[in-house]
Amino acid sequence: MTWIWEQSNWPDFLYDEKKFTERNNEFLVNSERLMGKVEALPENHQKDAVVDLMLSEAIKTNAIEGESLDRESVRSSLLALMASGSVANSTDQKAVGAASLLVDVRKNWGSPLTHELLGKWQTMAVPEQRTSLIMRGHYRNDFSPMQIVSGAYGQYKVHYEAPPSSQVPEEMDKFLAWYNESRPLKNSGEMPEIVRAGIAHLWYEKIHPFDDGNGRVGRAIADHALSQYLGYPTTACLSTAIEIDEKKYYYELEQAGRYDLDINNWLNYFSDTINIAQDLAKDEVDFVLSKTRFYDQFADELNERQAKMVERIFQEGRKGFKGGISTRKYEQITKCPNRTASRDLAEMLEKGMLSELPGAGRSTRYELINLSRNAFGHRAG
């Protein structure tokens, strides 16, 4: 099989930019509306919104790669990095690395991409590098093929083979030259910017320059490209949108350039996903708004146990607890007896802080009332 980089006209991708003009404009308009929503929040809650958006992205970009992160460790790392630029005394290097990558992409959105910056991002994406420490932040140099495979040992299916390591420096030189030359100030509207972001992500993934961390760095590049278009860090939750159907994501990446350099199908997928990402970001901002309004209305009426429970629910994000809030769950979190838990929950229900979930059977379950649009405090099983 001929891989995309083996084709004679690589990397002259073929696409119809007119197909993406409308979605490009939709992205711009929705981005401005979303930023307006964030800026309309009280100043002390604007940071909450940004942190929640970055938290979702950090968790999901790792989940796409099959890795789970501790939500609270990532959150505390994000807060520390945004406050002081460093994280002290953390033993969770994966959480620190994931947070560092998101913060650094936001910090450097206006900068050109360089070999050094990508190497820095790779060390953040894979802080516990499983290969030689010498290779951290450097392009791969192993002479064996870099292959994307699936299946049991001895029955591998090769989905893709990247260029040999000897070609990686030259391939990356070409990619970075194109990326920096096509940035919005020089592009002058010749290419829809979601097309540029989609090409950048695809091109980088086809080179697959590092031994590990390519997916996370590639999605960071897409965010970087979108931010350059907007003139400020994008709030779109791209990884969060991709993770909803990651099989589709990998399928579209694999199919792009499989037979020729026509990437219209990939760009269709990418453009649609970007706008889904904005809808998800809007939901995250609405969640922060709901949290703000909840505390404005009820903060003075919560006892210490109730306040602890509410804080714990909000830490779970907009989907809240799986199955809602039960008396038993309340007991476990607040360390109180059953009778006290029942009394506290009944009081919160009476004051309008909670609503009952339907179909709970013998064990009544609740969710916090949402003062924006949808109820939260639980997610479907």
Automatic annotation (TrEMBL):
Entry-linked PROSITE patterns: FIDO (PS51459)
UniProt domain Fido: residue ranges: 113-272
Gene3D superfamilies: Fido-like domain, Winged helix-like DNA-binding domain superfamily/Winged helix DNA-binding domain
Protein name in UniProt: Fic domain protein, PA0574 type
Organism, scientific name: hydrothermal vent metagenome
Organism ancestry: unclassified sequences, metagenomes, ecological metagenomes
